[in-house]
């Protein structure tokens, strides 16, 4: 859990930087592809020493292409149909997808009881993020759910690979960014607005942080941490970022926060995390009977 909490703090701060300084100024496709390239460069020295098989390298590249490359492509297209608030609202369903995919992947059947912590985490996030919806949001909703599925699939699939310790995973994790970089570069070539290039030293500095720390270090440690917890803990942690991001926005940039909804939703997410922590192997075996 320690790795997931660490990355949550990194991402909460990073999302605030995007919202305060890059959003609307730097094209999102250019920002994502630059992040993936920098993350790939970070892991390149270890990747050159990689001894992974072709099968494992292709699996990692495919996971990266889906979890990040395709996810970002779908996410940014959803902004054509949704407001920022609606996008944030619809991303809260990711925990359910993680729990369903992980349980079905291992046991080839589903138990609704296994979804309990994930559904409670969704409820907590809904309390925090609920906004009135626009009349024509269905296409955006479908795009966001496809993006959620991509992100959930990548986390669950990474849990299934035989990669060794967290430290040893760094030698192979570069393949993850090979796949993510290829898809993000293709999306940039097709959809980027080249008039929205980064222009200031601050823009470039934030992109370096996002590429090397939030993306490179962040996704490595997040996926490594995903292998050290049960699926429901991982599912719930996907929504912990929501209250964490709001608190960071308040502390650093004095953004308005509804403390009643934030507190109520955070309590629900905390309860769901405690519930998920009890979903150990014994609980799973009982649910299989």
Task: List its traits.
disordered C terminus, 289 residues, mainly alpha, globular, 13 helices
Q: How many E strands?
A: 0
Which structural class best describes the helix and strand composition? mainly alpha
Calculate the terminal CA-CA distance, rounded to whole Å. 28 Å
Helix content: over 70%
% residues in beta strands: under 5%
**Largest sheet: number of strands, sense, barrel closure:** none
H/E element order: HHHHHHHHHHHHH
Model regions low in confidence, pLDDT < 50 over at least 5 residues: 282-289
Which shape, going by the Cα principal axes? globular
Overall pLDDT, averaged? 87
Number of helices: 13
Radius of gyration: 19 Å
Structure overview:
By secondary structure, this protein is an all-alpha fold. It has helices spanning 2-22, 28-47, 54-78, 84-90, 94-107, 116-129, 138-160, 166-169, 174-191, 201-226, 231-253, 259-277, 281-288. The chain is built from 13 helices and no strands. It is globular. Helix 1 (2-22) crosses helix 11 (231-253), helix 5 packs antiparallel against helix 6 (116-129) and helix 5 (94-107) packs across helix 7 (138-160).
